[in-house]
Structures are given as structure tokens and as C-alpha cells.
Amino acid sequence: MRQPLVMGNWKMNGRRSMVENLLKAVMIDVGDLAGVDIAVCPPYPYLGLVTDRLAVNGIVACGAQDVSAYTDGAYTGEVSAEMARDVGCRFAIIGHSERRTLFGETDEVVAQKFARAVAADLTPVLCVGETAADRDAGRTQEVVLRQLSAVFKECGSGAFTRAVVAYEPVWAIGSGRAASPEEAQKVHRFIRDVVAQKSAQAAAHLRILYGGSVKAQNARELFGQDDIDGGLIGGASLAGADFVGICRAACIG
Ligand code: 13P
Questions:
Q1: Taking a C-beta distance cutoff of 8 angstroms, is the pair 66, 77 a contact?
Q2: What's this model's pTM, rounded to 2 decimal places?
Q3: What does the DSSP 8-state code read for residue 205?
Q4: Cα 99 to ligand 1 centre (Å)
Q5: How do beta strands 60-64 and 91-94 pair?
Q6: Cβ–Cβ < 8 Å for 85, 47
Q7: CATH number of the domain at 5-250, out of 1.10.1200.10, 3.40.30.10, 3.30.70.260, 3.20.20.70?
Q8: In whole angstroms, what is the distance from residue 213 CA to residue 166 CA?
């Protein structure tokens, strides 16, 4: 039985006051939720503040939105996985499509970051997913397989033993147009099958999140699919009530 996980990816949003208010709202309202793991991923400058606040209730975990492909050293502007772990993060989002497309992260760089996160005792949340053009050309599985294979190549067949995968079709991110539960389920099943070819046990335990225009209104049906184990939430994670509504849907779903 896989416990659902709902993660908020705040992206590059917020100021100290918003962080404080959002955390307060979330921490109060998730108090009665059972059977779901919850995490938020704030921008780097607020990680310490967030982990301090979250330590008080112990229900919501914290994640970084990215980590460096390098270990500590002369890499101006980078933040290492060890640093993220040191300030109290438990998760790290790796290879988000915005990093791949806007910042040129290749599959190989993403795989190195994944390895750094694992080595630092963080749970990597590997984002995979196809663009609209890939989808129209019928290349969804090919793209997802390529993204997963790069991680297997870097980290070996046990790569996903302690990891999370997030299927985020690029065309669904921030578009208001989520994948249908059936089409998402098909890709989630495919991801689990690919992992199962290397390790049946890792595949059975692997949490595969869906991301892309998840709202409180569509979350329940998405999370009700056999291979959808929660969500990675962008826009809707910036409003306390919306995010908690999605967490609630994961409990029921
Ligand atoms: P939206 O929920 O805003 O579509 O963003 C999804 C996402 O990119 C989460 O990482």
C-alpha cells in the first residue's frame, strides 16, 4: 500500500510574509488529515524559515526545488544537496521541466542531480513528461523512457528504491488543462512498468505523482487512479485553502 504524497512547488513565488501566512493556513488545516504525506517546496532563501516553522507540527515536510549537480566547492550561485539536507529538507525536486527547458538541463545533468540528492539522504522527486509536440507526435512513452533511462544509467537498477517520480506533461503545467485521469493513468502505469523491469520491489513501492493543473476540483478523480499516488502542485499550492483541498482529496482518493 502506497501512502499518497501531495507536494506544493511554490516555484519562484512569495515573500517572507506570504510564506508565514501560507504555512500558518496549511499547518492549521492539515491537522486532521490522516493517510497522506504532505510537503512544500519554497524558494531557497526561505528553506530555513520553512523548516523551522514546520518542525513545530511535524506533519508537513519540506523540499528543495532543485539541487546542484556538484558537491560543495567553488560553484558560485549553486546550492548543494547536502546544504538542503542540512537545513532540514527531506525531498528535492529534480529535473522539473522548467529547469530542463529554461535552464538547459540535459537528461545527464538531471541524473547527476538525482544522484547527489540520494547521496545527501534526500528523496529525489524526478520530474518527467513530454511537450505538446512530443505528445502530438505520439512520442510520450519514448520521452519518458529516455528520461528514466538516464537516471538508471547514472544510478543503477536500484535507482528508484528511495525516490518519487512526478509525471508532469509540459502542456498541462500552468495551462489550466490537466491530463485526463485515464491518460495520466496510462503514463503512470508505463512508468511503473519501466521501473519494474529493473526492480519489481522498487516499482511496487514507488510513488508516482501527477503534476499539471491539479486543482481541488479535479484532484480526487486523478488520485483515484491505480497508479497515481498523489500530486505535485504548482499554482494551487500558493493558496492555503486550495492546497489543503487537494491534500484532502488525496486522503479520500
Ligand atoms: P501547475 O499546478 O501550476 O500546473 O504547475 C505544476 C507544476 O509544475 C508543479 O511542479
A1: no
A2: 0.97
A3: H
A4: 13
A5: parallel
A6: no
A7: 3.20.20.70
A8: 13
Per-residue pLDDT reduced to its tens digit, 82-108 = 999 999 999 999 999 999 999 999 999
Nearest protein Cα to ligand 1, atom 7: 234
Grid cell at residue 105: 538541463
Hey, is 3 helix, strand or coil? coil
Pocket lining for ligand 1, CB < 6 angstroms: 9, 96, 168, 173-174, 211-214, 232-236
Q: How far is CA 187 from the centre of its chain?
A: 16
Which residue is associated with the grid cell 499516488? 229
Q: What is the number of other CB atoms lying within 10 angstroms of the CB of residue 85?
A: 18
Domain boundaries, the chain: 5-250
Q: How confident is the model at residue 252 (pLDDT cuts 50, 70, 90)?
A: low
Going by the DSSP 8-state scheme, the letter that residue 2 receives in this structure is P
Measured at the alpha carbon of residue 193, what is the angle toward residues 135 and 107, in degrees to the nearest 5? 55
pLDDT surpassing 70 at residue 199: yes
Grid cell digits, residue 35: 493517510
